[in-house]
């Protein structure tokens, strides 16, 4: 795969304004759910991913492969959030509501060969354009599977449909309980910190608690919680609801595509058994050593890439930028084979 960046990419990020126009709370007007957070969710992701990589037996992070790839990179292309295409964007609270609903549902498309992220993002956009109250918290609590299909204009049951409906209900209930029904209020509570936002989302919404246990130790990955922060940053251009003083703290969002791209580049090496399973489109169970290693080693490898590129270029390189570049390269490669795991987390 030719991954030499030559042009600016304009692509999709990977994957409410209610009828009452109330003002969002100020971040310093603390309520129990807006209390300052002391945990460093991203430190946990980096540390536990490195721990997995140091003990991995199915996936190897190849340091020489990283150096070889980095030596060919002159610069990371600027990536623009493609709100003009498949995403809803109105520069206000309704966009935040849209993105939170989108990222609550942004997982596991592969069991349906025709379904992909674009269908989800554009389907939700069309639903919101047709009915601005479609994602009100009280309505999110009541959707059924057939109603979600109708919302997305999808003709058959969605993969993990019951889980998708459950997560919609969870989002609606918790937004109504603690954030006056609005995801924008949730964002206001983070104090312009992406780390705080990831921790808040994981604290309040169990469906975003992307954890695994590997060889007796808990591993933190937080794919969809991080994507919510990254989507906000991309959609709002780092301003308003997308302004985060610590956007550089986010890691990549460990999914299906990025590990496959890293393997093609020679940065990740798979055991023969794992490689054969992926080549045969065999399923890999969630929480298995192979699955955790694929995701954690991807995070660790890209952190090493980021450090080397930053040294070479003399400027800070964001993992979010690397994630978008790698992901875009992957989805544009029709021959790419990714691992297959039934999971609500990615």
From TrEMBL:
Keyword hit for GTP-binding? no
Per the record, the domain of life is: Eukaryota
**Entry keyword Hydrolase:** yes
Q: What top-tier enzyme class does this entry carry?
A: hydrolase
Instruction: Give the E.C. number(s).
Output: 3.2.2.-
Q: Which reaction does it catalyse?
A: queuosine 5'-phosphate + H2O = queuine + D-ribose 5-phosphate
Q: Which GO terms describe its biological process?
A: tRNA modification
> What protein am I looking at?
Queuosine 5'-phosphate N-glycosylase/hydrolase
Annotated organism of origin: Clitoria ternatea
User: What taxonomic classification does the UniProt entry list for its organism?
Assistant: Eukaryota, Viridiplantae, Streptophyta, Embryophyta, Tracheophyta
